[in-house]
Amino acid sequence: xxxxxxATKNNTFDAIVVGSGMTGGFxxxxxxxxxxxxxxxxxxxxxxxPQDYDTAMKQPWEVEHRGKVTAHSAEELWANxxxxxxxxxxxxxxxxxxxxxxxxxxxxFDWIRAYHxxxxxxxxxxxxxxxxxxxxxxxxxxGIGIDWPIRYDDLAPWYTYVEKxxxxxxxxxxxxxxxxxxxxxxxxxxxxxxxxxxxxxEKFNRPVTVGRxxxxxxxxxxxxxLGRASCQYRNKCVRGCPYGAYYSSxxxxxxxxxxxxxxxxxxxxxxxxxxxxEQKQRATGVRVINQKTNQVEEYFAKIIFLNAGAMNTAAxxxxxxxxxxxNGLGNDSDQVGRNIMDHHLGxxxxxxxxxxxxxxxxxxxxxxxxxxRFRNWxxxxxxxxxxxxxxxGASREGWSRGVNADGFGGDFKQSLTKPGQWTIGFGGFGExxxxxxxxxxxDPTRKDKWGVPMIVFDAAFGENEIMMRKxxxxxxxxxxxxxxxxxxxxxxxxxxxxxxxxxxxGTARMGRDAKTSVLNAxxxxxxxxxxxxxxxxxxxxxxxxxxxxxYMALTARAADxxxxxLKKREL
Amino acid sequence: MNRxxxxxxxxxxxxxxxxxxxxxxxxxxxxxxxxxPNGVAFSLTQIxxxxxxxxxxxxxxxxTAPNDVSPGAKDVGVPAFIEMMMKDCYLQPEQLSFMEGLVxxxxxxxxxxxxxxxxxxxxxxxxxTKAEMKARQMKQTKMGDNDDHEDIKKVAKxxxxxxxxxxxxxxxxxxxxxxxxxSFEYVQIPGxxxxxxxxxxxxxxxx
Lengths: 571, 207
Ligand SMILES: Cc1cc2nc3c(=O)[nH]c(=O)nc-3n(C[C@H](O)[C@H](O)[C@H](O)COP(=O)(O)OP(=O)(O)OC[C@H]3O[C@@H](n4cnc5c(N)ncnc54)[C@H](O)[C@@H]3O)c2cc1C
Ligand code: SF4
Fold this sequence. Notes:
The complex is a heterodimer.
Chain A: H1 4-10, E1 12-18, H2 22-33, E2 38-41, H3 71-76, E3 104-105, H4 133-142, H5 152-166, E4 168-169, E5 183-184, H6 191-204, E6 209-210, H7 221-224, H8 249-259, E7 263-266, E8 269-277, E9 282-290, E10 296-306, H9 310-318, E11 343-344, E12 347-353, E13 359-362, E14 369-371, E15 388-396, H10 410-415, E16 422-431, E17 439-447, E18 453-458, H11 463-482, E19 486-492, E20 524-525, E21 528-533, H12 548-567
Parallel strand pairs in A: 1-2, 1-10, 2-7, 3-18, 4-5, 10-21
Antiparallel strand pairs in A: 6-14, 8-9, 9-10, 11-16, 12-16, 12-19, 14-15, 15-16, 17-18, 20-21
Chain B: H1 3-13, H2 20-26, H3 46-59, E1 63-65, E2 68-70, H4 78-89, H5 92-107, H6 115-141, H7 149-153, H8 161-174, H9 177-183, E3 185-186, E4 194-197, E5 205-206
Parallel strand pairs in B: 3-5
Antiparallel strand pairs in B: 1-2
The complex binds flavin-adenine dinucleotide and iron/sulfur cluster (SF4).
């Protein structure tokens, strides 16, 4: 083994972080800032912030297909296309080619991926809400899944810490259901939304607030230090922001980690396996494959953070087999890959709003209104469990109203240059219950072009979700009616599957008991203490709020614990 | 609505009967259309291109009225845009229904008709399409319950010709440089978002 000594030395770091997305970026920032030398390994191509956002400043006429997805792109990005227009000329090149990176659907799963620096943090909608107290307790109270090993108060300081760094614009409301955070100034509600908010309080006692969104409405000194500037309200965030005004791993965490000069990064490098030392009962490093050259290499570290995104993290654990872990690293409980959760969406209502015709808006708000959960909350009791929140908003119709309206000719053309009536729409994000039968696993024979086993999805909505969906649509219609809106149309898209919410999670859950969970209260793999999982895989339940801020809070908390443990020589 | 009702409606809208040439043209309306073999690449003949251009220009014509001087669909390159989009962004069902519509226009000798007659044809098309779109929509809202999955797949017929050409004309025009600048107040970098009061005759913002 003499030959390997030099390689081992060169390839050895204090910590390895797998994945450079929302959570990997944050892990790298925390670990480097606490003094560790970190290697972050990213399977996708390198994107440099902000110069590689090549479509960001294009004017509408410079975008060839004007926002539509070409048939070619729809075929290459066949899973991504299920979401909508992400595969268009504006952002398509930043999403994963599904044909090159196929997966198997025993039951349909809408898997939207972005393999490149920053992962999906480049494309997220930036909606950022804390879980509430109940979210951490409901499993135990209702006998669903297993209990979280932590409570809201364990995470609260870490929420604050992350919100401050990230920069979240929002309005404090003092609600138990939607705990306040550390906020930058809120964005405005528009005139019909203000009316709606008032009516909902009057008629249902339901609060409505403006979205809490990770866009810098007022940058603080620690933001500008990283080169981040104030939001310009173009709402073209999905192309990447040239001002670094919304938070991503690219605009925030990676620049911060780079300031420490302790971050090394590899791109185009697929982590295929975690190496396990039977004697030390520790993971020692990772085996990687260069996605361009197929070259295989090993890297070593004292601790390893898995942040490849919930599904890929679980796949990586399942693919890491040893004598000790014949079903995959840390998989004594057989829970790795199980309990896939997401938020179900594609259900809500739209309506037209009468009046407010002298009200208009300057600028494009990269945000929405938010209606916090009101179901199974307080005195409300439904035949299903848990609840949902709505996101949406009001806007005045533009020229596209002409498509379905009667008319053509000169007057028609001129009429479309003026704002049309107000319309409003919102859709629900519903909580999904953990169910061990909703799972992914590795195909025993089929492999991708790098020889890594392909992922098989076998998951679907259960009865609770389907019942909830009906209520999401009906309640939206009821609220619009109560607000006096007209032409109310409900929708409940039948072709929505798990995954489409792009909040996939749950495949290596935290818990109190190693027999029924994969991670402990600090996101440590029960049986392999120097491996931490802090992406969505760690989630024990899903709440109904967008999860990324929670993932980042868990990540920061786990990194803090890991470094302290390292210093105490416990790791 | 059956075809006769549609014709009656349109005639009423136009303030009287159709002119004789239009009615004659209409007689060709339902002549069977040669179907296009599957898998053939989408391409238009010169005549079909001319028809597309004329229809696009009727939808969004060049205007020179003192209160509205603005280019027309042809000025800003909409006809070529429509062809490109049909080719690049649509699958066979839409391509077939687009071709079907064009063949119908050829059958009624669209290019030989005068302006009024052409408008009559488009009005007719509009009414026909409205009925079809309504039927499609009913089918789709019925889907609300998550259970008739299979049904939705049966709507394999492409969107109607008029709906396609109208949408693409509007999209091509209102996102073209000249179209945007003539129609809206174009703001590339707003810098803020705020509630404002609309001034009389204020144009929409485009971003
Ligand atoms: C359009 C859209 C809108 C969204 N809106 C919101 C929202 O409003 N609010 C919200 O909270 N969340 C939102 N999300 C979800 C959010 O983006 C994810 O929750 C978040 O990015 C997950 O972070 P992650 O680190 O787990 O995964 P990612 O950010 O996806 O990062 C994972 C990284 O790991 C890399 N990787 C994967 N496998 C390997 C491997 N084997 N080896 C090496 N590297 C690997 C990937 O290439 C990727 O870069 C949205 C997502 C999308 C796409
Ligand atoms: S809306 Fe704000 S964050 Fe989004 S791209 Fe524009 S400037 Fe950047």
